[in-house]
């Protein structure tokens, strides 16, 4: 058995709970809940938007990487030459998607001769996304041989994946200058509609 004092307190507690159920929430209580929800939304929303942008940028990173690898294969299969035609690489990558424009520029456009490198672009078609570029270029490497000459020069291809330092403020519609193939695929040489030289950096 509960003591009379405890019984009285218990009955009083039950009674107060019933009264509160009948009364509902006060305006202050509702305002406090709304403020808490607002604070949580303000904290979570930027992180959510950042993750959405990263997901969209992953498309360009994957496609530009695929273009780089396809250019290397094309070079070996086509008399040591690259291509500026997306269709020649047979990857099924469209020249334009919702978020990106894909194009290829030779490093010797207008100069004649065989290109020693190409730059495969994934240009942001909307704001708040980074643009990407893959510089694929031909180089040579000295290798030791078993004959009397002792060494030989072997031709090979390498790639450098680049990205803009910051997201684009608007659509980046065209590429004008590719990476510097003569300088190990230097990203700093890249120029586009929105980006001047030095605004592309290697993707770590």
Question: What would your notes on this structure say?
Answer:
The chain is built from two helices and seven strands. The N and C termini lie far apart (73 Å). The longest helix has 51 residues, at 27-77. It has a domain at 62-202. By secondary structure, it is α+β, with helices and mostly antiparallel strands.
Strand order of the largest sheet: 1-2-3-4-7
Shape: elongated
> Radius of gyration, rounded?
31 Å
Q: Report the structural category.
A: alpha+beta
- Number of discrete helical segments: 2
Portion of residues in beta strands equals: 15-25%
Query: What is the H-and-E element order?
Result: HHEEEEEEE
**Oligomeric state as shown:** single chain
Helix content: 25-40%
Q: What characterizes the major β-sheet?
A: 5 strands, antiparallel
Based on the model shown, name its key terms.
single chain; 204 residues; alpha+beta; five-stranded antiparallel beta sheet; two-stranded antiparallel ribbon; 35% helix; elongated
Compact description:
The chain has helices at residues 4-23, 27-77; strands at 100-106, 117-124, 132-144, 151-164, 175-177, 191-192, 200-202. The chain has 204 residues and is an alpha+beta fold.
